[in-house]
């Protein structure tokens, strides 16, 4: 059973963590959760209110990380999933986060990212020349990172599958599962 790495931190978007985590289990993969340290992570829920110009944030579920980013040997993993939320804002400052994420892009392994995960990818240079979805407010980050922002629910660029936010889950995960089945089959 291939292992898939999910990187999360406190304030990761609840739905953007649990939906792919559970889909990977359903497909026969072994998801492993890495964070800056081994700890119980506190997720958040972003929601939309008619009177607000942006989203609001509420406390979400908590979930333990399996290992610290410093313990991750990216060669052991077939693919990477990066949820959004506010977590990527500080994860991008972690040297081990940068080491691990860059490995997946350099090795041309499957990567799924959604929403604000793009703000952690742009500074790494891994979006350069790529078509990439993200939460629309992150379009400037994608473009400053050399990427081409696409306002879509499942943007596939090679082995990288991206989406705007949690309401894109069905399209995003359907596309990512297709990439995984082709390049890292659960039975293979």
From TrEMBL:
Similarity remark: Belongs to the peptidase C56 family.
Species assigned in the record: Streptomyces lydicus
Record's protein name: Peptidase
Organism lineage string: Bacteria, Bacillati, Actinomycetota, Actinomycetes, Kitasatosporales
SUPFAM superfamilies named in the record: Class I glutamine amidotransferase-like (SSF52317)
Domain DJ-1/PfpI: 3-178
Superkingdom classification of source: Bacteria
PANTHER family: DJ-1 PROTEIN, DJ-1_THIJ_PFPI FAMILY PROTEIN
């Amino acid at each position: 059973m291939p292992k898939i790495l999910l990187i999360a931190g406190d304030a990761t978007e609840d739905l953007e963590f649990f939906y792919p985590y559970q889909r990977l289990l359903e497909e026969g993969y072994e998801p492993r959760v890495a964070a800056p340290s081994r700890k119980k992570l506190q997720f958040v829920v972003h929601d939309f209110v008619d009177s607000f110009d942006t989203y609001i944030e509420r406390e979400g579920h908590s979930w333990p990380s399996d290992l610290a980013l410093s313990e991750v040997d990216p060669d052991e993993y077939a693919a990477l999933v990066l949820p959004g939320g506010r977590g990527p804002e500080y994860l991008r400052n972690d040297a081990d986060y940068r080491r691990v994420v860059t490995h997946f892009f350099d090795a041309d392994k499957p990567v799924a990212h959604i929403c604000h995960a793009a703000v952690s990818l742009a500074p790494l240079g891994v979006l350069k020349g790529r078509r990439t979805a993200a939460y629309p407010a992150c379009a400037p980050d994608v473009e400053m990172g050399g990427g081409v922002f696409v306002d879509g629910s499942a943007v596939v660029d090679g082995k990288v599958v991206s989406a705007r936010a949690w309401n894109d889950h069905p399209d995003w995960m359907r596309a990512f599962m297709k990439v995984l089945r082709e390049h890292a089959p659960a039975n293979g």
